[in-house]
Amino acid sequence: MNKKCVILAGGPLEDCDKVKFQLEKQDYCIACDAGYQLADYFHIVPDLMVGDFDSYRGKIDPRVETYTVPAEKNDTDTMLGLKIGLEKGYRKFLIVGGFGGRLDHTVANLQSLVFLADKGASGEIRSNRNWATAIKEDTLALPRAENSYISVFAGDGVCTGVNLHGMKYPLEEYTLTPQFPLGISNEFLEETARISVRKGTLLVIISRKEGAVDKPAQAGV
């Protein structure tokens, strides 16, 4: 079954108010603290709300199950939601509201994509202008995103056997390291970009070019 877990994180609404997604009957939605504001905006009644409630203090629909945790904890609210989704058997995740706010939380959310890939799951973060995913020792085919850059970074250390095809700047059996961002600001050359890594985990990011406003940057996993 192609079910997914949708995580509503606490990023600013103006960064994700144009994101398109649809909840299917078999999907599970978790609002993480201030992510409940996104649930209100998108007219969603989440299945679960989790967090330490240091960011959201408004009303909660009585139909929503809540799970409160201490503010002093190891996991971010978003990571807590991802772990709950994994425990419930979900292996496909969509994070909305994961960009655009505090830089430290943005980095943490990108790292959460690496965490999911390491668990054998797939995850993506969507915002109005950016989209991100991670692949571990795998191949990813992405349709051309107009007026967008596509960037590839080493996500968990040295990545070997990196191949980039269908792009302006191709790579063949290359070794990417976290110390040098060679994979930034590439561009689609063909209708499909193909990315693969033999060993390691790659972060893949699509970003809309400045002035491009015709549609959000989102590819899907």
UniProtKB/TrEMBL annotation:
CDD domains cross-referenced by the UniProt entry: TPK
SUPFAM superfamilies to which the protein is assigned, alphabetical: Thiamin pyrophosphokinase, catalytic domain, Thiamin pyrophosphokinase, substrate-binding domain
Top EC class for this record: transferase
EC number: 2.7.6.2
GO molecular function, one term: ATP binding
Pfam families: TPK_B1_binding, TPK_catalytic
Keywords for the protein's UniProt record, in alphabetical order: ATP-binding, Kinase, Nucleotide-binding, Transferase
Stored InterPro entries: Thi_PPkinase, Thiamin_PyroPKinase_B1-bd, TPK, TPK_B1-bd_sf, TPK_catalytic, TPK_catalytic_sf
GO BP: thiamine diphosphate biosynthetic process; thiamine metabolic process
Boundaries of every Thiamin pyrophosphokinase thiamin-binding domain copy: 137-203
NCBIfam families from the UniProt entry: thi_PPkinase
Protein name: Thiamine diphosphokinase
